[in-house]
Request: fold
Amino acid sequence: MAKNNGYDPYRSQQEAIRKAKGNPNKNIHHKKNNSNYGGGDYQKEKAALKSQATEKVKLPLWLKITLGVLFGVLLAALILRMTVYKESLFMNYLTSLLLGLACAALFYTRQFRNSKKDGKLYTVITVLLAIMAVIYGGMGLLGLLTYFGIV
Reply:
């Protein structure tokens, strides 16, 4: 019986060939659809799509300043109307006009923010803002015109 000394030239030659070729099943999973192992291109595409979907256009500076001033004046008018001028018709009409202007400004800013949404709730809110802008703005303007005797 021959001694098994652990060295087989044929076996070591086959092992060297296998190592040189590499594992044929290695990295086969990157070819699957929606795989996390798709490499740099897939990850870049996924990140680009995600950034496009949630990208919001920034409001212009003039609109930010206008909104800040409008809401500041509206808050001051509402505080004065509730505390100092409780029974003043002029303050009632002025706050109604300012509320209408605030609704109109919010309606206008909807085109800058979340412009890709087409849901029912989004449409309902947009329509409500438009209706409230017309109603409150019209009531306030008509009230001020009658207060000053123009109409």
Notes: The two ends are 124 Å apart (CA to CA). The helical segments are 9-21, 40-53, 61-83, 89-109, 120-147. Residues 6 and 12 are 11 Å apart (CA to CA). The chain has a mean pLDDT of 81.
